[in-house]
Write a structure and sequence with these properties.
- The protein is mainly alpha-helical and 155 residues long.
- The protein has one domain (8-150).
- Helix content is 74%, strand content 3%.
- It has 6 helices and 2 strands.
- The protein has a two-stranded antiparallel ribbon with strand order 1-2.
- The protein is globular, with a radius of gyration of 15 Å.
- The protein starts with 7 loop residues before the first helix and ends with a helix.
């Protein structure tokens, strides 16, 4: 997955697609569209991490993280919760860069760590494992789809 798109229009198309997906998933997360048995999937986190597997440009990654924070922010001012979510998202993306294993294993570990960090206030092992599994069930098909789109336009 370390392949790079060569032309700027294709890079912009790929970024626009991911920008759209992060916005849609963030709004879906706000509206509780993806709740299973009372557990909310962190769709914005998953979309940002999957995008970060393919794109190494920190400016684009930062734009997606800030978009998710803007959509998911409940307060008209910058609150501590929003700052913590942004920090966790940046840390998660940074973790993807420093882990040198297979991308699938990196995603699993990073989603788990980010889920534990976002739920640190109300630590419940069952809820964390359920949310991690649901997030991974969402992340794996999304990564496969993005890999298909990426490899289709790479050549």
């Amino acid at each position: 997955m370390n392949r790079r798109l060569k032309s700027k229009p294709l890079k912009m198309f790929f970024f626009a697609l991911n920008f759209f997906l992060v916005a849609v998933f963030s709004f879906g997360q706000l509206n509780y569209l993806f709740v299973f048995q009372g557990t909310q999937i962190n769709l914005a986190l998953v979309a940002i991490l999957v995008f970060s597997l393919f794109e190494k440009d920190w400016l684009r990654r930062s734009a997606l993280i800030l978009l998710a924070a803007l959509v998911l922010s409940f307060e008209p001012v910058l609150g501590l919760d929003t700052v913590l979510v942004v920090a966790i998202l940046f840390l998660s993306v940074f973790l993807l860069d420093i882990l040198k294993w297979e991308p699938a294993l990196n995603i699993v570990l990073t989603v788990f760590i980010a889920t534990v960090l976002t739920n640190a206030g109300n630590f419940n092992v069952g809820a964390i494992l359920t949310e991690t599994i649901l997030s991974l069930l969402f992340a794996i098909p999304l990564a496969l789809l993005m890999n298909l789109v990426f490899s289709r336009f790479k050549n």
